[in-house]
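ok so heres the complex, two chains, lmk if somethin looks off
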Amino acid sequence: MSDKPSAPARRRFLRGAGSGVLALSTGLASGCKVLVAPDAEAVAVELRALLYRELLVAELGRAWLGPDSGASLDRLTETLLDSLGIRLDRTLLLPVGDLLEALAARIRDDFAAGRVASVAGWLLAEAEARTCAIAYLSRRGEGRA
Amino acid sequence: MFIDARTLPDGESINADLCIVGGGAAGISIAREFTGAGRRVVLLESGGFSFDERTQSLYEGRNTGRPSFDVDVNRLRYFGGTTNHWAGHCRPLDPIDFEARDWLPHSGWPISRADLEPYYRRAQPICQLGEYRYENLEYFADATGLPVLDLAHSRLESVVYNQSPPTRFGTVYRDALGAARDVSVYLHANLLEFETDRAATRVTAARVACIDGPRFAVHARQFVLATGGMENPRLLLLSNRVRPAGLGNDHDLVGRYFMDHVLLRPGADISFSVPGVDLRLYRTLHQVAGGRMFSVLAVSEARLRQEKLSNFRIHLVTARPRYTKPVGGAVSHLDAFSHGITGRAAGYGSIALHLVLEPIPNPESRITLSAARDLFGQRRIDVAWRLSDAELEHAHRALELAAMEFGRLGLGRGYGELFRDAHQWPDNLEAGKHHCGTTRMARRPEDGVVDPDCRVHGVANLYVAGSSVFPTIGYANPTLTIIALALRLADYLKARQT
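and the predicted structre for the whole thing:
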């Protein structure tokens, strides 16, 4: 039996989903937006925008990396994009909506496949743990971590 | 009829066809089966119709095992027994629970779920439950109009749980037993020991005492011990005049394999990532088909076999989460996208995962007699509830599977102490207060205390009823199985005693 739920089934499970929430659709907010620089920092900025609670996300990212991590933003971003089937050097003009779609799908697949990470008591998909780490390193690069 | 045993003359001798010791769920269920059957049945109940501290004190014991096990709570020693405060959750054991599973040492019943099925069905109305439809969640989902979580069935399933009112056996069945002319319920009658013939192959009498009252004996052709998973082994061990190790204990098994469900409440919390997650089928009771039901998550049989896990269930409970920062909100944009909805997180609440895990039979987890004595001078018990690293691993995996499902469904993220440290039991580890395994059922006396008919190996006319005969306990609450086994034993006794 498939490990993936059908989209209608997922929707059926939500009561009144979307009501009372601030409009921020991929079409409105990110679908028309494209990446303008094919580098890790530009990607990281857009990834950060896909997550909320920036401080919390950075905390998780730092916890996932562990102390004295020598991880680089470039390397992490490249690894994440590889897992999404996106090449870093081909991200120029990549619609942010596509990035969102690929990341959301990868997270679902990670959970389905058991590719998870325990981070500060939270069970995260590997892709989202990596995204949190990218967000942390990106903030740190701005001197805000 | 009810008789206050304190009014009997000291040294009285009572004769019966069947003597049942214990007026709880098992004992009352058996006694009910004999009303109008033309047999003389005696039921010995330690207490009266209400709680009494001195009587209750007879249950006191000492915990020598895990600190999270409290010996002196849970059991009640008056008519109706522990059903006087049970929660009422009911479900049969799964078919796999009866199997010998190569990854669970000492597992395997000598009977199957199919053997018990007709008795489960008969037990259902005794617990005042609705229609017997445990394998048909869709029926309840349709009846309630509520959605079922779209779980990966290779991992978890939603299963039906029934909810008893809960039936207080001592209240609900009091009038019927009081009116029964062939069933005599002796209140305030405490079994001290079974007396046997010289070879201890046959019980000749039950020696009984009242607090500050007379002592007397019940002579019967058959005896049923139905005093619960802690007291059953105690009374067999105390019946040691002929066999110093106690009745049915030639192989040093009485009191061993003590099991209780492993509880983590919560084991984890799910921080929702989207609004409006509808878990009403799970978190509240629903009146359907003449009874009340709810659903829980349970591991699929395929996953049990694949990963060689203990069986488990997870309740979804509305409770304050243990985390302080809701990560569900952080990933809400991603999960909302997966559902094709738009939105920004504000904080969508949470649900607690209460884990109930099957323990692994362990001969070193046991009940023994202690040096301390009760007010009759009878030795009390030491209880050493032991868990292994395997149960810890299974608990962690159970919660991981559940958290992964909520993540895969795009509903939220899981937080739990075991995700932080998988090598140490969280502080909130509890026992389920379901005392099992101490007179386990097995075909051979080398492997168990009672045979598949619940007769004590080597003793021709002594039977044990209750959860102490369970060789394994699955994840289901034991009461329905206790009653099913009691009804099966009653049928067996009726067929044999002519």
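quick notes: Chain B is about 25% helix and 25% strand. thats all i got rn
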